[in-house]
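It is worth pausing here to work through a concrete case rather than discussing structure prediction in the abstract. The textbook approach is simple: state the sequence, then state the predicted structure, then interpret. We follow exactly that order.
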Amino acid sequence: MGEKKEVEMGSTPTYSRHRRDLAAALIAAARWIRNPVSEDGAKQAFRMIYALLGPDVHRLVASMRANPEVVTLLKERPDLGPTLADVKTLARLPEGSLGRVYHDFMAGDDIFPGYILGGLAYKDGHFDRLVDWDPDAKWLVERLANSHDITHVLGGYGSDFAGEAITISFTLGVNGAPEALALLWAAQWGAVSYAALLPPVGFRAWVAIHVDAVRRGVAVARAQPLVCIPFERELGAPLEDFRRACGVRPHQHTEFTTQDGWLDTRGWNRGWLGRQMASGFGTMDATMADVKRARRLIEDGFPIPTVMGARRENAQRAFSLYETGASRDDVRAALAG
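Step two, the predicted structure:
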């Protein structure tokens, strides 16, 4: 159980870097499961991290500082979000490169970009209230969210709901969770997600795919955790070479694997609950409309924290001003409220 303090101006909690707050994490998890593809659902992932993983994130920071191969990344703290939002540069990269495959992966209408997810760290002021967190640890949390879609590409998991579910298990492995604990969690998550999605591969195969995802992730983490990989310098590298350098091994279930190393999970979400969750319980169209509007501003150079941290009414006004050709100063003023 953890320590949760109340701050002035409201009841938003501040989570300690030293302790875990299981109750707060469970509440956030319940809100995330209720509607994972909504903005409200997505931002709960950060609250789970704040409540549960503060000690682990700070241990990772300490290990990075002791590693001469990655300490430079920590010292520089590059902002991955704007790099991944620079669609013009990504589109000019060689076909088959990490950055170009990422660009094409992000082209779908149903994509919730990682840099949008990373920006949700600033929603409701929770990020700024991590008052005793090391700045390096806060940077790592944001980088983890920004790299979400890179994780899909690295592991070869699609953006459909089944692919998202499996990516959660892969992410657990690549971010350095103890293997035994990660495998137990993956088996449990596999059972829960199977009940929701009812994929046609059957229960045993579905759980085995989650276990394989964790093991593939752990193999990457043994080289270096995901947040330690300097993606910014590798976007032009051939994807196959990049996966090999990161220690990504082929999928165990070759019968579901494409020639270019992706697990084909299209059509695997057949359960009523899974379909409802994938649609945001009817809110998906509105959510994605807002995501597209936010993407336009971010891809045009507006700072991600400013766009994603704005109050909803301010953001909506800024979107409308931008779409009617208002000046950048007017859009910025609207975001600030």
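Step three, interpretation. The radius of gyration is 19 Å. The beta strands are 4-6, 13-15.
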